[in-house]
Amino acid sequence: MPLRLRSFARTLTFAIFLPLGVAACATTPPGVLPVADITPSIEQLAAARYGAIDTEKFPVPAVSLKQLKQRNMRELVDYATDQPVGTVVVDPKGKYLYLVQEGGKALRYGVGVGKAGMEFTGTAKIAYKREWPRWTPTQDMIARSPEKYQQWAGGMEGGARNPLGARALYLFKDGKDTLYRIHGTNEPWSIGQAVSSGCIRMMNQDVIDLYDRIPDGSKVVVLG
To answer: What sign for the dihedral angle of Cα 13, 14, 16, 18?
Structure first.
């Protein structure tokens, strides 16, 4: 379990296993917080999950609370599906990505998705993964917006300004590159919206977390 989730788990464990006598008292002894006061606030959760990361090749800044909506924060949720554990399920309509877990659960991440008519749907596999990937716009992207993309026709090296962010997972179908990616973003405000050229974007902190949890070859289902 990543460090930031372990600290959150310890907090919840402490709250759950407080002595019953303390939990039942009408008054609280000096220096002991009531159970209700131990529940982490949204600000504390945001700091734990979306704080700055300084152990990467390039710095990952904290996500501003002004740009972070609670619905987009990573969390473990109930999730009924017939997909096997380890499958990545993307729900473009809901703007969520689910990593299927055991016991009817899933890790849910807020995502940004493709604009109407530009999104991928169906089943694919993660052929390979890359840290701080190089980015090259597709020919379709260059044709649509040459003033924006032509300068990068030869590619952009990985880095803090790269549109693919800290990680990229490359989707292949029937052995062929779909040209769609699950990747990070340097625009966290775009999470929860349909703004991309078809790819599935995540906050850098989330795509790093997902990257560490799934191997090459993992199944990806993008719902219609």
So the answer is: positive
pLDDT tens digit sequence for 161-201? 999 999 999 999 999 999 999 999 999 999 999 887 779 99
Active site residue 183: yes
Cα-Cα-Cα-Cα dihedral of 193, 220, 102, 191, to 10°?
Answer: -10
Which of 46, 68, 100, 199 is an active site residue? Answer: 199
Spatial separation of the C-alpha atoms in residues 17 and 20, rounded to whole Å: 8
Annotate 20-75 with DSSP letters as a single string: HHHHH-SS--TT---HHHHSPPHHHHHHHHHS-B-SSSS-BPPPPTTT--GGGS-E
Question: Are 223 and 93 spatial neighbours (Cβ–Cβ below 8 Å)?
Answer: yes
* Nearest partner of 115 among 133, 141, 135, judged by Cα: 141
Helices assigned H by DSSP within 122-203 = 139-144, 146-149
Q: Indicate if 156 belongs to the active site.
A: no
Q: Report residue 72 as tokens.
A: 């987009």
Calpha distance 171→213 (Å, rounded): 16
Residues 26-48, mean pLDDT to the nearest whole number: 64
What are the boundaries of each domain within the chain? 3-40, 70-222
CA-to-CA distance for 96 and 108, rounded, in angstroms?
7
What dotted CATH number matches 70-222? 2.40.440.10
Q: Of these residues, 49, 129, 167, 183, which one is catalytic?
A: 183
